[in-house]
């Protein structure tokens, strides 16, 4: 889906790693939320509270989940991260993403 309808957006940005990763939070009528963001080239590590589905819209990156090997994710690809976990990213070129927070 390339467009979200009937949503509200938090005006303030989520800014991480000195502005190299930014996103905006989108709230849906059913109470779910997603973030849409951009990641600049670099190495990052994130912690999760909720289970997440990361969809890669464009860019070049590798992901490493806890206890797993590095894996390349192509544009159009996705990966899930368990709740209360972490993951590492190697961003090779500017990457556009959509993160869904799952129950």
Q: What's this entry about, in short?
A:
By secondary structure, the protein is mainly β.
Report what the structure shows.
The protein is mostly beta strands and 103 residues long. The mean pLDDT is 96. The two termini are 20 Å apart. The chain has strands spanning 8-9, 14-16, 21-27, 33-39, 42-47, 51-65, 71-73, 78-81, 86-102. Strands 1, 2, 3, 4, 5, 6, 7, 8 and 9 form a nine-stranded antiparallel beta sheet that branches.
How many beta-strand runs? 9
CATH C-level: Mainly Beta
Provide the succession of SSEs: EEEEEEEEE
**Unreliable segments (pLDDT under 50, ≥5 consecutive)?**
none
Question: What is the CATH architecture annotation?
Answer: Sandwich
**Class derived from helix and strand content:** mainly beta
Terminal-residue CA separation: 20 Å
The count of domains is 1
Question: What is the alpha-carbon Rg in Å?
Answer: 13 Å
Largest sheet: 9 strands, antiparallel
User: If you average the pLDDT, what whole number results?
Assistant: 96
The helix tally amounts to: 0
CATH homologous superfamily - what is it?
Answer: Jelly Rolls
- The name of the CATH topology is Jelly Rolls
Helical percentage: under 10%
Shape: globular
Strand residues, percent? over 45%
Give the helices and strands, then pairings.
Layout: E1 8-9, E2 14-16, E3 21-27, E4 33-39, E5 42-47, E6 51-65, E7 71-73, E8 78-81, E9 86-102
Antiparallel strand pairs: 1-3, 2-3, 3-4, 4-9, 5-9, 6-7, 6-8, 6-9
